[in-house]
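[User] I have long wanted to understand how a fold can be written as tokens. Those tokens are not coordinates but codes from a learned vocabulary of shapes. Could you go through the record with me and say what the backbone is doing? Thank you; the sequence and its tokens follow:
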Amino acid sequence: MISSSPFTHNDQTVRKVMLQVQFAAFPALFVHIYLFGFGIVVQWLLAVVTYLVVETVMLKLRGRPVQPFLTDMSAMITITGLVFCIPPTAPWWVVVSGSAFALIFGKHLYGGLGYNPFNPAMLGYAFLIISFPVPMTQWIMPAEISGHFLSFGDAFQIIFTGNLSSTSFDMLTGATPLNEMRIGLAQGISVAETLAPIAGHTSQTHFWLGLNSWAWINIAFLLGGVYLLYKRTIRWQFPVGFLGSLFLIAWIFHSYNPEMYPPASFVLLSGGTMLAAFFIITDPVSASTTPLGRFIYACGIGILVYVIRTWGSFPDGLAFAILLMNIAVPLIDQYTQPRVFGHSR
């Protein structure tokens, strides 16, 4: 029997891939709740409502069927990645505006899923950082430090009213490790002196001996990323290129001047490093599509993240690094096309 191609299928659908990615994020979600309380749950539910409304309205305006596109879970991954980047006590309008901007300007205005040149979650995150810098930098401290675990009711009250009746909200907030590092260096405090209290030690001990809360969240994202690699949901070039380049440049500068530049272990386990490595830069639409191009794309993001964190105006820099490399994707793909099968010299 003669039939037409394709002859092989990988049994993957958009919905199945998105569900695998969502499942892989659960370890980080549970660790986040344990450390920072239920703020992220309230915000995620609020983002889900926003995504349902925005997707329905935009699909109807574009003349597209609502049900199949609403249930492909692509928008769910966008808002999940965005919510992990937002402080868990940020006001409700931050979550709503960021989610709406990511879906409208990062996805639908370019023609929907498969046509967006920029990562929607990072576009929404960059919009929030630029538009609302104050609420986007007020992170709640872990419960073990603040002495107050943020319950679902507490989180709901803070997010929708901005106040907390049981205690002072200002007493619960503090600088993230990346911000602490930046402030310390600006005040002439060495890296070792800054890392000691972050790591939970009074002496100059290595970062691994006292993992901070952000490190545990990054490790949880790493476990989820290993699962995605095992299921072949993502390509290995993305995390290897990103983490490898970030580690290498951090190791070089720390070796050159350990008083001014933090160790590679701190760089890899701070901020949203592992979230970006396995859940953000692996976006198959806005990332490079060739094998070599994926590696170059990921390496470029790693270098830009370190440059922005070290010398830029933003503590993390993930959103801007990813968006800048999104711009370079067409050029990268053009010059990294693999040899056509059957090509002869």
Q: What stands out?
A: The radius of gyration is 21 Å. The first strand starts at residue 139 and ends at 140. The beta strands are 139-140, 173-174. The mean pLDDT is 84.
